[in-house]
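Tip: read the tokens left to right.
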């Protein structure tokens, strides 16, 4: 049975930690779903980890719809959330168009957008029409050129503003808030003040849940951010397997009869006659 917003509220109330993981395609969604991850995020981080861009900014709504649809097809139980990409929620009308496409075409169950009080009216507009919205505060990748990739809200005034933004998102109807690259002490205080769950990434252990990027978790690239924990070195294993395959082909060791089919000799003779 698919995870619901009520399930998330119950998990927070019970003190049960909420794991969330990014997914960008059908096979990764199937694996994460079988592993029991209750929340899958189709992040616009796909622009970097899948498409090879330097930022999330080039990601289009078409990109998100295509990838999100594949994830939804692979996930039977997880709640699938899709990012609204850069400038697709500059106005309430734009946000409705983007959310409609993601929910009707890709069939995601929720959307995520970046920003605090300034986007609260858009969050409220979407939620009033039945669109579940997750917020995102702290380091917001779509504002990377403005913020820089660094820990946010370390000064008192900025920390107060982040708390106010989190409360504004909750009041607007957001069902959860991602806190990215926020001091652990501040993230824990925000978590105490909110009735809805917080999901941390580089924000310490005091959040209600954690989210990690698929590629960082599995070690698919040579390096990972400081806030990531590499649970496997799948990238190295894949490279080793491909090297072995290429070597076997080059040495004539693959394919063998075990990977080949045979034809009756008389049938072959008649075909060649």
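Filled-in amino acids:
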């Amino acid at each position: 049975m698919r995870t619901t917003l009520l399930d998330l509220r119950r998990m927070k109330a019970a003190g049960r930690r909420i794991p969330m993981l990014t997914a960008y395609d059908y096979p990764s969604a199937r694996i994460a779903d079988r592993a029991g991850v209750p929340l899958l995020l189709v992040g616009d981080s796909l622009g970097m980890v899948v498409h090879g861009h330097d930022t999330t900014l080039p990601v289009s709504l078409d990109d998100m719809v295509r990838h999100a649809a594949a994830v939804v097809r692979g996930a039977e139980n997880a709640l699938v959330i899709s990012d609204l990409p850069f400038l697709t929620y500059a106005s309430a009308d734009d946000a409705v168009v983007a959310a409609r496409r993601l929910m009707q075409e890709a069939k995601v169950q929720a959307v995520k957008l970046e920003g605090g009080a300034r986007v609260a009216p858009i969050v409220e507009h979407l939620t009033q029409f039945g669109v579940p919205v997750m917020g995102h505060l702290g380091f917001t990748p779509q504002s990377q050129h403005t913020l820089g990739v660094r820990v946010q809200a370390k000064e008192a005034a900025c920390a107060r503003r982040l708390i106010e933004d989190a409360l504004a998102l909750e009041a607007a109807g957001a069902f959860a808030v991602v806190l990215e690259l926020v001091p652990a002490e501040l993230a824990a205080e925000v978590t105490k003040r909110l009735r809805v769950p917080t999901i941390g990434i580089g924000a310490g252990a005091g959040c209600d849940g954690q989210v990690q990027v698929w590629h960082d978790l599995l070690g698919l690239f040579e390096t990972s951010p400081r806030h990531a924990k590499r649970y496997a070195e799948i990238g190295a294993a894949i490279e080793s397997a491909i090297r072995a395959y290429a070597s076997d082909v080059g040495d004539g060791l693959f394919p063998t009869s075990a990977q080949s089919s045979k034809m009756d000799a008389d049938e072959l003779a008649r075909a060649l006659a």
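The mean pLDDT is 97. The two ends are 61 Å apart (CA to CA).
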